[in-house]
Amino acid sequence: MVCESNTFWGKLFNITIIFCILTSVLIVSFDSVEKINIRYGKILLFAEWIITILFSIEFALRIICVKKPLKYLFSFIGLIDLISILPLYLSFFFNGTKYFIVIRAFRILRIFRILKMWNFIEASHQLTKALYISSIKIGVFLLFLLVLVVIIGSLMHLIEGGHHGFDNIPQSIYWTIVTITTVGYGDITPVTPAGRLFASIIMLLGYGILAVPTGIVTAELVKFARTGHAKSVHSCPSCSKEGHDTDAHFCKFCGGKLQIS
């Protein structure tokens, strides 16, 4: 029941867990408000401990249920489950770690599996793969962008003559990053005509630069859309991983037999 959600009780269990996750995130958010913390701090902490203990029991049950606990522990879902229960325990030794409980919000992604939202599950797999495949191209692009930022920052330092906020190259590089990403804080602005002209060119260039990584990932997503196959939301009872073909009988990650209903 803990690893699958095909039955009524399985769905009810997982929906209850998601409700606890949302409650936990709200508790941490409210606890960070000073007035609420002073008045209801102890009550919120008590409620958070109850939820953390419930999650700890659930985590232990998942380890017991799967045939290969290590596969589950080192999977993305397993690591999120583990990290989501650690912050409150670590708060005994380190101050402020309890606020990392908001990591539990990642566990809400299970709602796609619980409600059998096949398209969303498939879309998440495609997006993850597209980002992974595009990572090398994006890495090269970022390296090129880093070189470009250093060159532009150095030029702006020379154009402005080391004045008007462009006192040194690192500060000029900071201005370049803020400008080229179209953030534009306005704390440093060029004053000379040549500086303003050069800045205008960089601003226009920024729009094109932001589109490059988006285009790389989009191209990979289009490839998956053309060649993609339907996936099942059933998880493997051995390693708890998903993403199997609808006609698969064995897990493609660990080789364990799938429980096909």
TrEMBL record:
<keyword id="KW-0630">Potassium</keyword>
<dbReference type="GO" id="GO:0008076">
    <property type="term" value="C:voltage-gated potassium channel complex"/>
</dbReference>
<keyword id="KW-0406">Ion transport</keyword>
<keyword id="KW-1133">Transmembrane helix</keyword>
<dbReference type="GO" id="GO:0005249">
    <property type="term" value="F:voltage-gated potassium channel activity"/>
</dbReference>
<dbReference type="GO" id="GO:0001508">
    <property type="term" value="P:action potential"/>
</dbReference>
<dbReference type="Pfam" id="PF00520">
    <property type="entry name" value="Ion_trans"/>
</dbReference>
<feature type="transmembrane region" description="Helical">
    <location>
        <begin position="197"/>
        <end position="222"/>
    </location>
</feature>
<feature type="transmembrane region" description="Helical">
    <location>
        <begin position="42"/>
        <end position="61"/>
    </location>
</feature>
<protein>
    <submittedName>
        <fullName>Ion transporter</fullName>
    </submittedName>
</protein>
<keyword id="KW-0633">Potassium transport</keyword>
<feature type="transmembrane region" description="Helical">
    <location>
        <begin position="12"/>
        <end position="30"/>
    </location>
</feature>
<feature type="transmembrane region" description="Helical">
    <location>
        <begin position="73"/>
        <end position="93"/>
    </location>
</feature>
<feature type="transmembrane region" description="Helical">
    <location>
        <begin position="136"/>
        <end position="159"/>
    </location>
</feature>
<keyword id="KW-0812">Transmembrane</keyword>
<dbReference type="InterPro" id="IPR005821">
    <property type="entry name" value="Ion_trans_dom"/>
</dbReference>
<keyword id="KW-0813">Transport</keyword>
<feature type="domain" description="Ion transport">
    <location>
        <begin position="11"/>
        <end position="225"/>
    </location>
</feature>
<keyword id="KW-0407">Ion channel</keyword>
<keyword id="KW-0472">Membrane</keyword>
<keyword id="KW-0631">Potassium channel</keyword>
<dbReference type="InterPro" id="IPR028325">
    <property type="entry name" value="VG_K_chnl"/>
</dbReference>
